[in-house]
Amino acid sequence: MSAKIRPIYTIITRKISVNSPKQTTVEVISGRDSYYKKMGNKALDSDEDLKPEGWDDAKPFKEIPGPKALPIIGNFWRFLPGAEFYNVEMLELHERLQKQHGNLTYLNGIPLKDPILFAYDPDDIEKVHRNEGPWPIRYGLPSFDYYRNHVRDDAYQGVGGVLTVQGEEWFKFRTVVNKILMQPRTAEMYVDSMDDVANEFIDNIRRFSKSNSKNEMPEDFQNEIYKWTLESMGVIAFNKRIGCLKPNLQKDSTGQKLIESSVQLFELMYKLDVLPSLWTILNTRNWRKYVKILDFFTEINMKYVNECMANANTNSNISEYEKSVLERLAQTDKKIAFAMAGDMIIAGIDTTGRTMAAALYFLARNPEIQEKLRQELKSQMPAKDSPVTKNILRESLYLKAVIKETTRLSPISIGNMRRTVRNMVLSGYQIPKGVSAELCFILLRAFFIL
Questions:
Q1: Are strands 116-119 and 436-439 parallel, antiparallel or unpaired?
Q2: DSSP codes, 278-298
Q3: Which of 137, 189, 192, 187 is nearest to 164 (CA)?
Q4: SS3 for 330?
Q5: Would you call 412 helix, strand, or coil by DSSP?
Q6: Any idea what DSSP says for residue 70?
Q7: Which domains does the chain show, CATH number per domain?
Q8: Dist CA 134 CA 147 (whole Å)
Q9: Cα–Cα distance between 113 and 107 in angstroms, integer?
Q10: pLDDT tens-digit series, residues 149-187
Q11: How far apart are CA 288 and CA 294, in angstroms?
């Protein structure tokens, strides 16, 4: 999701291997969730301050390699015009850091930014995740957090969404939304609608193919994929067809403006939250652009949520499991429903669109995999107009493998953000609790099949 990542098809060329209404947030936590919560608390309370095995033999934290910070100006100068990191894409920045300093790199001396540890070794990444406790601390988007909890607290009312909450609040939020979003029957209820969206997208692909002698897609085909993604997200988040897949969609249409705003949003997140920036103390140009884009998302989200709930009120005879995701979330907590709908649109356009583009690219580069997938789908859907059903989705095992392998080879982001909650040893170095770390799984070369 990071803005400065190069287009998905140029990142990597790897071979594919085979509840009841009106409950409060706290009340929704089930007995099983409480059990795991207590178990996790006990584990953290008992050993978070202990020295792990190998601690005394490990090198001290201050000896971790990384760009050397200069007195007063730190490492800020490296990002200035003419310096080594100026205008460098995020993926390339990490490639340089790993090559120059190894699989564990420490970067400090950036004004208004926490020092950060970059982990590139899969064993280190696994160890951090296994020691994060029941409530992971994930930093990384302070600009988004500030917007929702301060700039537009009038709209979000203290519920920033899954991207901003931490610790126990994250646990409570996920407990509410997981009970609805993670149920197989929730996904299955949208199969027919999603099939309609997919068929419309395929019709557009056929039209593009017939428009030129080489049967190629247009140069801006990524934007067409984003249209399909947004249309799909609209069905799930708002139970609504936005109309993105209509031929000759106008540039000033709501759908196209949402897509362009999503792309710009992640570019600005990179500039505000990753690169050196003064937005926390000054009303910078990038910050003003960022707020304007998020205001647009907020107003559209508010409009679509209100429309969805108004339609729900006029159709009160349907069963609980026929209700949309938004309706069921709203029965539990309307503020969570509003925040989650916004999260699905903002995050869904970019992440799902990039994953689809990567899957199509990998399949094109690996025709034998493409043919094997084609044969599986033909056996499930023998006729060209055979609809996709929930049973077909359950039985399409090779399709699931292709999607899983795509996300492994081409992750949607550089890595996960974590703050260590206990002492540990990584790559032979002492890592105390409270260290901000980025777990950079996009560079896990050891897992790639070349």
A1: parallel
A2: -TTTS--HHHHHHHHHHHHHH
A3: 137
A4: helix
A5: coil
A6: B
A7: 8-16+179-409 (1.10.630.10), 48-132+420-447 (no CATH)
A8: 27
A9: 10
A10: 999 999 999 888 888 888 888 888 888 888 888 888 888
A11: 10
